[in-house]
Design a protein that fits this description.
mainly alpha; 0% strand; elongated
Length: 132
């Protein structure tokens, strides 16, 4: 028990901090595993980039909080400190995700081409009435 909590908090802190740094730098690419992954943020690459830039600083702070709680748990083994640090880090990360989601929702949805613009119409072409 004395080693498990600091290790979990340390790993969580490193992951959150790395995601936060990559998001702030705009180097976090759209993926299925890390970052703000809501329907609005996954709409396109630009929206994903914006959402994770907005959530980058809170994720970085959440990582620092988790690392600090892990270090404090090593120095003075106390489950209460570890739980408070874990809940605090997760709360900050969730708040950052909400901010990122709201930023993604605020971006206008790109206009879809009308009719057969951009589609691969197979089997005889497009209907002249498709754009009406």
């Amino acid at each position: 028990m004395n080693i498990v909590l600091p290790v979990v908090l340390g790993l969580l802190g490193v992951v959150l901090a790395a995601v936060g740094i990559l998001g702030l730098q705009g180097r976090l690419r759209r993926n299925r595993f890390v970052g703000v992954r809501t329907a609005a943020s996954l709409r396109d690459d630009e929206t994903f980039l914006l959402a994770n830039r907005v959530a980058g600083l809170p994720n970085l702070v959440a990582g620092v909080v988790a690392l600090g709680a892990g270090l404090a748990t090593i120095i003075a083994p106390n489950v209460t400190v570890a739980v408070i640090g874990l809940v605090g880090a997760l709360g900050i990360a969730v708040a950052g995700g909400v901010l990122g989601h709201r930023a993604a929702e605020a971006l206008p949805v790109p206009e879809q081409p009308k009719g057969c613009g951009g589609c691969a119409c197979g089997g005889g072409g497009c209907s002249p009435l498709a754009g009406l």
